Amino acid sequence: MADNPHNSSELPPFILTGLPGMQTLQHWMFLLLGTLYVVSIVGNVLILFIIKEEQSLHQPMYYFLSLLSVNDLGVSFSTLPTVLATFCFHLQKISFDSCMAQMFFIHFFSFTESGILLVMSFDRYVAICNPLRYATVLTDVRVACMGICVIIRSVCMVFPLPLLLKRLPFCKANVLSHAYCLHPDLIRLPCGDITINNIFGLFTVISTFGLDSAFILLSYVLILRSVLAIASREERLKTLNTCVSHMSAVLIFYVPMVGVSMVARYGRHAPQYVHTLMSLIYLFVPPMLNPVIYSIKTKEIRRKLCKILLRTKY
């Protein structure tokens, strides 16, 4: 541990951590993570290919799904270099600038995913509660504008984080808790006043995850009210079934996030590998499960996927 503070420009490399206290399992861990990477990358690429090739899927719901798949690919590729280096090659050093860049992209894609899930909930709301105006409300131009707004918001929220960290002096141990760079992990390292960083971090969480989850919940309350007004039980179930994929995507994104927050707040005495595993679930499970869920629950995607598999087989 250094006794004197260092500016970020002269800071020695950060040290990434695999599974603390479980070094003998790290090759097996990489095998597991490698499998998740393959499923995530192949699954999301297939979703994008199918939507591009299938004309019947050229509609707002699937444009948003395409954006979600691109974002999930971004999450996977953001963590892949350091996870591969740490778990497979035991290369645990990362420079300050590289760490800041990785932190930017991880949090950018995380905020973007939350925004995409929000606009997808709006899509479901319009489709169920006002179906006659669906085509006029969700035009291609408006879909593109919504996607651009989500991306711009994410950039505005994440861009200040590296700058706020860069201004601080570092004098503590430069060992990170994960195999990648996250803001909550990095913010514990500076020895200067981090009040501004904490306030801005709280603001970003509330104005993205907090507001998005509240509006998603509101949209489903309105959807449920509209569905309950349908007389036929079969029609109610059929209508709700169109939301299952999106509801599943929301749950597999927000539940691990809440789990990570709860462990960080109330599990301080838990072994460090518990925190590491929770963060791995948060970053690896949604990109892997989203294409699986949509492939299973969407008839058009499932049919096209079966054709691709049969063509490959023969």
UniProtKB/TrEMBL annotation:
CDD domains: 7tmA_OR51-like (cd15222)
Main subcellular localisation: membrane
Localization, UniProt: Cell membrane; Membrane
GO MF terms held by the record: G protein-coupled receptor activity; olfactory receptor activity
Keyword hit for Acyltransferase: no
Keyword Cell membrane: yes
Matches recorded under PANTHER family: OLFACTORY RECEPTOR (PTHR26450:SF104), OLFACTORY RECEPTOR 56B1-RELATED (PTHR26450)
Protein name: Olfactory receptor
Provenance organism: Pteropus vampyrus
Gene it is expressed from: LOC105307572
